[in-house]
Design a protein that fits this description.
Length: 231
């Protein structure tokens, strides 16, 4: 059982006991920080899918209108002109077989990995390293592309990927606690709409069954999305 701090327990006692609006939840989080640093704020969604069916996996990406507030480290697997374009767009590391060998050696100091289609044959050799960490390039999230410059710029500007876990839950960073409430709301609604757009055709019933907003070290607050133009 996780031992919680006195501060966490005290915040939990005064937290809303039933779902509230996004604005109320975010204002509560901003007024009750879980840590002294500028915490990230996440939206967690419980999805109404059949986790036993592979065709009901939910995965995609979304560009947050107000960014993430985080410095995103981007690497690109590419050669030739595509590598030069990625470098020019601000990629933190660009390479091909040399970059793959570096990762095999244990280097994982990055947040997003992008690859050109022709580089994927070699990149797949480190799928066991990148996959479990959510770093494997994928066409569905726009990280397997010949437009390396565009992909780097999108990642740096606040594009986030999302992927349902094996229990049917999905968690996405939507900004920092220091963001204005309205900006966090806009980011969350963008995420919700992007997730809804990836609803599997075979999914039945209510798709988003529950939603919770929380900060890195803070208490989770359940929110109502139906009145937030998220239907």
């Amino acid at each position: 059982m996780i031992k919680r701090s006195k501060k966490y327990v005290d915040t939990l006692k005064k937290a809303p006991k039933s779902p509230v609006s996004l604005e109320e939840a975010i204002n509560f989080i901003k007024a009750n920080p879980g840590a002294k640093f500028d915490e990230s704020v996440d939206i967690s969604l419980r999805l109404g899918v059949d986790i036993s069916k592979s065709d009901q996996t939910v995965r995609g990406s979304v560009s947050l209108p107000n960014g993430t507030g985080k410095t995103v480290r981007v690497i690109v697997f590419a050669a030739g002109d595509k590598a030069d374009q990625a470098q020019g767009a601000g990629a933190d590391a660009v390479g091909y077989e040399d970059l793959i060998e570096k990762i095999k050696g244990g280097w994982l100091d990055f947040d997003v990995a992008i690859a050109t289609p022709d580089a994927m044959k070699e990149v797949r050799k480190i799928a066991r390293v990148l996959g479990p960490r959510g770093l494997m390039p994928n066409p569905k999230t726009g990280t397997v592309t010949d437009d390396t410059a565009g992909a780097v710029k999108a990642a740096k500007a606040g594009k986030v990927d999302f992927r349902m876990d094996r229990t049917g839950n999905l968690c996405v960073m939507c900004g920092k606690r220091s963001f204005e409430t309205g900006k966090l709301v806009e980011n969350i609604l963008a995420i919700v709409e992007a997730v809804k757009a990836e609803r599997p055709a075979s999914a039945k019933g209510t798709f988003i069954r529950a939603a919770t907003v929380s900060s890195t070290m803070g208490v989770g607050i359940q929110v109502v999305l139906k009145d937030e133009k998220a239907k």
